[in-house]
Write a structure and sequence with these properties.
The chain has one domain: TIM Barrel (Alpha-Beta Barrel). By secondary structure, it is α/β, with parallel strands linked by helices. Helix 1 packs across helix 9 (about 285-300) and helix 3 runs parallel beside helix 5. It has ten helices and twelve strands.
């Protein structure tokens, strides 16, 4: 079944958040004071999340990405992922993690049926990593990446580029992509928490590419059917690939193929939508009604966000609460 929204975009990608909790405090994701964790009773059960996933796949969703917060902090996550992987018709199950808990869990995730990992990693310098994450241990993440590689995972690194904080490491990350034959995706900073003077931190996607192209020749890659919004490139003569995600300057909304469900059960057709649909009442109804509710999220998906014209117009939120 092919599922399309009013703009004719094919919608086949569900981002499913399983928790708002995280074991890091990244400066671009949370305010300095952090956020109070939601009570457990406010978080959807695995049974409810699985039911939403099953009905989404029935509708025509082919890819599910499990996110948080940090999904690996939730107890029982590997078993839940195994249940998702067994849903008939699901073509792709992937996971986004900060990598802190990856080393002891990588083999189990692979056996559970997770096909790819995206690991958030914003610095290759221990002190800088600790600064950005408010105390994170880079060694644990690098050990987790190596464990994931040994488990057979294709890896993508997500790097939020922050001027004056880690933008001097752009070429270091490209070199890592070349040496390890993995993908690095550079992401423009987004003002989700309405941080004062946020523009001082922002580095455009075009500037990121210009810096890379001073050193390397980039060859554009075609966008895969279920891919996200990155513009992807192969570094000529190597197996390394890089991508740039430009939510502020590049306006990729015309290619957006996703909806998201937060850990509280709020369904959103756009990350920056100020409201969403509470799925909890529909989870108490029949599968047909639940499926109709999901379909309505697709048919009411907005044409685009308006960050480029009014970046402070949306309600402030923490990415961990929505599902990054």
């Amino acid at each position: 079944m092919i599922l399309t929204d009013p703009q004719g975009r094919r919608i086949n990608y569900l981002r499913l958040s399983v928790t708002d909790r995280c074991n890091l405090r990244c400066s671009y994701c949370m305010p300095p004071e952090g956020i109070p964790s939601l009570p457990h009773e406010n978080i959807l059960s695995y049974e409810d999340l699985h039911r939403i996933a099953c009905q989404a796949v029935t509708l025509g969703f082919e890819k599910i990405r499990v996110t948080g917060g940090e999904p690996l902090v939730r107890k029982g996550i590997v078993g839940f992922l195994q249940e998702l992987a067994s849903i008939p018709g699901l073509a792709e199950l992937v996971l986004t993690t900060n990598g802190v808990l990856l080393r002891p869990m990588a083999e189990g995730l692979r056996r559970a049926g997770v096909q790819r990992l995206n690991v958030s990693l914003d610095s290759l310098k221990p002190e800088n990593f600790a600064r950005i994450t408010h105390g994170g241990d880079l060694t644990r993440v690098l050990d987790g990446l190596e464990a994931a590689r040994q488990a057979g995972f294709p890896l993508k690194l997500n790097v939020v580029v922050l001027r004056g904080m880690n933008d001097d490491e752009i070429l270091d990350f490209v070199a890592l992509a070349l040496n390890k034959a993995l993908t690095v995706r550079f992401i423009e900073y987004m003002p989700t928490i309405n941080r004062p003077n946020w523009t001082k931190l922002w580095v455009s996607g075009s500037e990121i590419l210009e810096r890379i192209e001073r050193r390397y020749k980039l060859q554009p890659l075609d966008l895969a059917d279920r891919a996200g919004p990155a513009r992807s490139f192969r570094v000529a003569g190597t197996d390394g690939t890089v991508g740039v995600i430009s939510p502020m300057s590049g306006h990729f909304c015309t290619q957006c193929n996703r909806i998201r469900i937060t850990s509280m059960g709020l369904a959103k057709g756009c990350l920056f939508a100020d409201s969403g649909v509470d799925m909890k009442p529909y989870l108490r109804a029949s599968d047909d009604i639940l499926r109709e509710a999901l379909h309505k999220i697709v048919t009411s998906k907005p044409a685009q966000h308006h960050l480029e014209s009014s970046p402070q117009a949306h309600a402030s939120f923490c990415m961990a609460q929505i599902g990054g």
